[in-house]
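lol forgot to send this yesterday, sorry. struct tokens for the thing we talked abt
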């Protein structure tokens, strides 16, 4: 069965695809943990589809909901290459994702361990287990730094 590291490696592939398409390099994978089955995948796409909500997490959660024919994704694990923003943390909570695994921290835009710390708020009704995959944190962070460096000229 695939491990957290294997699933995050796939999310990293999706992040590289996003970068190749001119999008901020973030990838996400939704997995059924008992079987290791990948339920859904997503990569950042706001620019290409003209949708500010098309973050990798949202794309993957929407696809997982359609696959499961249910907006509740209880028990599933979401792997994402960057700490989710507040919007994505809200979607994770509303979807009832059981476990969140992210690679790189996002001190400027993160909403889980930085910024609003969405899951720590008293108004948050569902809190997933949150883990950081440090084995891919440096790679994910470097991918983001390289992307933004290339955009600045």
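and heres what i got for the seq, position by position
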């Amino acid at each position: 069965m695939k491990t957290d590291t294997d699933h995050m490696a796939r999310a990293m592939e999706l992040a590289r695809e996003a970068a190749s398409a001119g999008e901020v390099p973030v990838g996400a994978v939704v997995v059924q943990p008992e079987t290791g089955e990948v339920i859904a995948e997503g990569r950042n796409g706001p620019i290409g589809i003209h949708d500010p909500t098309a973050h990798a997490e949202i794309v993957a959660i929407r696809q997982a909901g359609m696959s499961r024919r249910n907006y509740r994704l209880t028990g599933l694990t979401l792997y994402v290459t960057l700490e989710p923003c507040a919007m994505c943390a809200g979607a994770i909570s509303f979807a009832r994702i059981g476990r969140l695994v992210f690679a790189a921290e996002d001190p400027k835009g993160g909403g889980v361990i930085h910024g609003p710390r969405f899951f720590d708020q008293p108004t948050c009704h569902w809190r997933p287990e949150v883990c950081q995959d440090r084995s891919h944190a440096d790679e994910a962070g470097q991918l983001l730094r390289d992307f933004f460096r290339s955009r600045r000229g």
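The longest strand covers residues 37-43. anyway ping me if u want another try
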